[in-house]
Amino acid sequence: MDNFSFQCITKLCFGKDQQKKIGARIQPFAKKVLLVYGGGSIKKSGLYDEVVASLTEAGIAHVELSGVQANPTYEKVLEGIEIAKKEQVQMILAVGGGSVIDTSKAIAIGFYEADAWSFFEKGGEPSNVLPIATVLTIPAAGSEVSPDAVITYKGRKLGFSSQKIRPVVSVINPEIFFTLPKNQIANGVTDMMSHIFERYFTQTTHTELIDSLCEATLRTIMRNALILMKDPKNYDAWSEVALGGSFAHNGLLGCGRIQDWGCHGMEHELSAHDDRVPHGAGLAVLTPNWMKYVYKENPQMFLQFATNVMEVTLDRDTEKTILRGIDKLRDFFSTIGQPATLTELGIGNAPLAEMANKCVGNGYTGNFKPLYQEDVHNIYKMSL
Ligand code: NZQ
Ligand code: ZN
Fold first, then answer.
1. Rounded to the nearest whole angstrom, what is the distance from the C-alpha of residue 88 to the centroid of ligand 2?
2. What is the rounded CA–CA span in Å between residue 333 and residue 330?
3. Measured in angstroms, how far is the CA atom of residue 374 from the centroid of ligand 2?
4. What is the 3-state secondary structure (H, E, C) of the chain?
C-alpha cells in the first residue's frame, strides 16, 4: 500500500424529504445563493418548488441559472459567473446531476478568478472559491462528493481537481431518482462502476482492504441496478445504488494505490467529439475493450475481478476465466441497455487517430498500462 492522505469534507444528508431541509442546512453559509439547474426535469417533478420553498423558509434569497446541458459548456459557466458577481451571491446551490454540479464548481472558481478555464487547461489552485451545496437528482458522476469538475470548451472536454471545490453539503434522497428514464439509470450505473474500475485496477500491491471494498461496492451496484431496470421506483435499490455512486467517487476507494483513469481520458474525447454522447454510454463501449487490451499486464488482478466481482467459476485455464469475466461485464452492460460499439453510439465515422492524439497529448493516459497514441487508437478501433 502506498502513502496517502484522505479527507472528504462533504456533509451527506441522506434519505426521504432531505431536500425540504436544504435551506436550513446551508443557512450558516449564505443569505443569498445562485440556484443552478438543467433542462427542466426538476420543474416537472416538483423538486424545484420544494427547494425554493425551503430557501424561503430559511430566509435565503436566490437568483437562478437554468438550462445547463449534459456535457456542460464553459459558455454556460461564464453566464453563471456574470450573474453570481452582479448579484453578489455567497454560495452556489446545484440541483441536478454531474453537469449541473460541475458547472456550479466552475462558477465558484470564476467568482474569484479572472480566467476559470485556465485551471482546466493548466491546473493550479484557485485562490478562493464560493462554497457549493448540491441536491442530487441522478446518481452517476459522483460530483456531489468529488473534488473534480469536467467542462467542455472549444472542442476540448477537460477536468480540473481541487479540494476547494468539493461541495460542503449534499442531499441524496433516493425518491428524487424515481423520475429517471432507463437510459439515464444505465449511464449513471456505468459511470459509477467505472469510477471504481479506475481505482481498483492497479499495479500497487498489498491493497486487500480497499480491493474488497471495491468488489463489494461493484457487486451491490450491479445487483440493485438490475432491480431498478424492472422497478425504477424501488427506494431500497436506489438507496444502495446512490450510496455506491457517492462512495465510488469520494476518494475512499482510491486510498493507498496508483489509480488508472485511462478509460475516462479516452471517453472524454468521445463526448468532446459529439456532445450527444453520454459519458456513461461511452464508458460502456470502451471499458471491456480496455480490459481485453491491458489484462496481460497483471492477470492476477483480472482473475480477482472475474471471480470476486463477476462471480465467474474459477477454471484451470486462467485466461479463460479472465475473458469470461470481461464478457460477463459486457453482458451486464447490454442487459441494462448500453451500446457495445462506437457505431451504436452514432460516432462510427469519428476521426479516431486524431482523437487518440488529443487524448494523450505529448504523453500517455492511464497507469495500469500506460497507453500511448497507438494504444488508444487500437482501443478505439476495437470499439468500432
Ligand atoms: O437537464 P435535466 O432536465 O435535469 O435532465 C437531466 C439530463 O438530461 C436528466 N436528469 C437528471 N436528473 C433527473 C433527470 N431526468 C429525470 N429525473 C431526474 N431526477 O439526466 C440527464 C443527464 O444529466 P447529467 O447531469 O448530465 O448526468 P450525470 O450526472 O451523468 O453527469 C455527467 C457529466 O458529469 C461529468 C461527465 O463527464 C459529464 O459531463 N463527470 C463529472 C465528474 C466529477 N465532477 O467528479 C466525474 C465523472 O467521471 C464525469 O466525468
Ligand atoms: Zn465518470
1. 32
2. 5
3. 23
4. CCCCCCCCCCEEEECCCHHHHHHHHHCCCCCEEEEECCCCHHHHHCHHHHHHHHHHHCCCEEEEECCCCCCCEHHHHHHHHHHHHHHCCCEEEEEECHHHHHHHHHHHHHCCCCCCHHHHHHCCCCCCCCCEEEEECCCCCCCCCCCEEEEEECCEEEEEECHHHCCCEEEECHHHHHHCCHHHHHHHHHHHHHHHHHHHCCCCCCCHHHHHHHHHHHHHHHHHHHHHHHCCCCHHHHHHHHHHHHHHHCCHHHCCCCCCCHHHHHHHHHHHHCCCCCHHHHHHHHHHHHHHHHHHHCHHHHHHHHHHHCCCCCCCCHHHHHHHHHHHHHHHHHHCCCCCCHHHHCCCCCCHHHHHHHHHCCCCECCCCCECHHHHHHHHHHCC
Q: Max Cα separation, the chain? A: 67
CB 382 within 8 A of CB 289: yes
Q: At 342, phi and psi to the nearest 5?
A: -65, -35
Q: How far is the CA of 102 from the centre of ligand 2 (A)?
A: 12
Ligand 1 in reach of 126 Cβ (< 6 A): no
* Ligand 1 pocket residue status of 40, Cβ below 6 Å: yes
User: Which ligand 1 atom is the nearest neighbour of the CA of 72?
Assistant: 39
177 CA: nearest ligand 1 atom: 19
- Please, which residues bridge with residue 35 across strands? 64, 93
CA distance 246 to 264: 17
**Ligand 1 in contact with 137 (CB < 6 A)?**
yes
Q: Of the candidates 61, 126, 67, which has an alpha carbon nearest to the alpha carbon of residue 100? A: 67
CA atoms within 13 A on the CB side of 365: 24
273-322 per-position pLDDT tens digit? 999 999 999 999 999 999 999 999 999 999 999 999 999 999 999 999 99
Pick the atom of ligand 1 nearest to 264's CA.
48
**pLDDT tens-digit series, residues 47-86:** 999 999 999 999 999 999 999 999 999 999 999 999 999 9
**Cα distance from N-terminal residue to C-terminal residue, the chain:** 37
Quick check: 244 and 217 in contact, CB under 8 A?
yes
Query: What are the residues whose beta carbons fall under 8 Å from the beta carbon of 293, sequence distance 6 or more?
Result: 369, 375, 378, 379, 382
